[in-house]
Each structure stands twice: as structure tokens, then as C-alpha cells.
Design a protein that fits this description.
With about 50 residues, the protein is mostly helical. It contains three helices and no strands. It has a single domain, classed as Arc Repressor Mutant, subunit A (Orthogonal Bundle).
Length: about 50
């Protein structure tokens, strides 16, 4: 959520900033983000959504 500005302060964070917070590399943050997005895309809730 930090990456997209969906936090209390509404500020977007870079991969590097998020990585420093959790003690991982920015590449690992990107990998985790990609995996999460793929899980969402495969979910039934996502597949059943209709275009706006």
C-alpha cells in the first residue's frame, strides 16, 4: 500500500524506501509486489469484477 500512496499520509514510497523499512532490497520489494498482484489477478473476486 505504501507504493501506491494508500497510507494515512497519502505519500507514495519508492521501492528503495520500502526496502529500507523492511530490511530488504528494492528488487525483493518489486518481486513481492509482482507476486501479490498476480495472486489478486487469479482470485475469483477479481475475475468476477465487471469493467466500469
Amino acid at each position: 500500500m505504501n507504493r501506491f500512496g494508500l497510507t494515512v499520509d497519502g505519500k507514495r514510497k519508492t521501492l528503495e524506501e520500502i526496502g529500507k523499512k523492511y530490511g530488504i532490497t528494492r528488487e525483493r520489494v518489486r518481486q513481492v509486489e509482482d507476486a501479490a498482484i498476480n495472486l489478486i489477478k487469479k482470485s475469483d473476486a477479481y475475475k468476477n469484477e465487471q469493467a466500469v
